Amino acid sequence: MTPKLSVVQIVTNDIDASLAFYRRLGLAVPEDLTDKSHVAYELPGGMSISWDPVETVKSFDPDFTMPTGSGLALAFDCATPAGVDEIFCDLMDAGYQAKHKPWDAFWGMRYATVLDPDGYGVDLFAPLK
């Protein structure tokens, strides 16, 4: 049996702020959620992304602390280099922070990194050609 990667989990200090950020990036997470102790959203292709407030995680892992630094990142394909710039500017105008402004990476992509409300790096990318 080979395990299958199926869920990416985001632990957050402010679930409303986190959901607003990811909705702005195009995830159609419903707005009318009544239970925010765990939110799951199925992505195209069968994977899911979920959000759990720190309090929820601490209920089963009392020693949990929010990570510092960034060993993993989410990356959103913006289709075109102009798309990277447009989405980056939209997030900056909405008050989010940049980690790396858009640049042409040596591996052939337009790239930028923004920080979500919990400080997680979120990459925006598109092929240069």
Structure overview:
With 129 residues, this protein is an alpha/beta fold. The protein folds into two domains: 7-60, 2,3-Dihydroxybiphenyl 1,2-Dioxygenase, domain 1 (Roll), CATH 3.10.180; 74-127, 2,3-Dihydroxybiphenyl 1,2-Dioxygenase, domain 1, CATH 3.10.180. It has three helices and seven strands. The chain has helices at 15-24, 54-60, 81-93; strands spanning 7-12, 39-42, 48-53, 74-77, 97-104, 109-115, 121-127. The strands form two sheets. A four-stranded mixed β-sheet has the order 4-7-6-5, with helices on one face. Strands 1-3-2 form a three-stranded mixed β-sheet. The longest helix is centred in the last third of the chain and has 13 residues, at 81-93. The termini are far apart.
Give the gist of this structure.
The protein is α/β, with parallel strands linked by helices and 129 residues long.
Keywords, please?
129 residues; alpha/beta; 2,3-Dihydroxybiphenyl 1,2-Dioxygenase, domain 1
Runs in which pLDDT lies below 50 for 5 or more consecutive residues are: none
Question: Over all CA atoms, what is the radius of gyration?
Answer: 16 Å
Strand order of the largest sheet: 4-7-6-5
Q: And the CATH topology of the largest domain?
A: 2,3-Dihydroxybiphenyl 1,2-Dioxygenase, domain 1
Q: Any idea what the CATH architecture of the largest domain is?
A: Roll
Write the layout of secondary structure elements.
Blueprint: E1 7-12, H1 15-24, E2 39-42, E3 48-53, H2 54-60, E4 74-77, H3 81-93, E5 97-104, E6 109-115, E7 121-127
Parallel strand pairs: 1-3, 4-7
Antiparallel strand pairs: 2-3, 5-6, 6-7
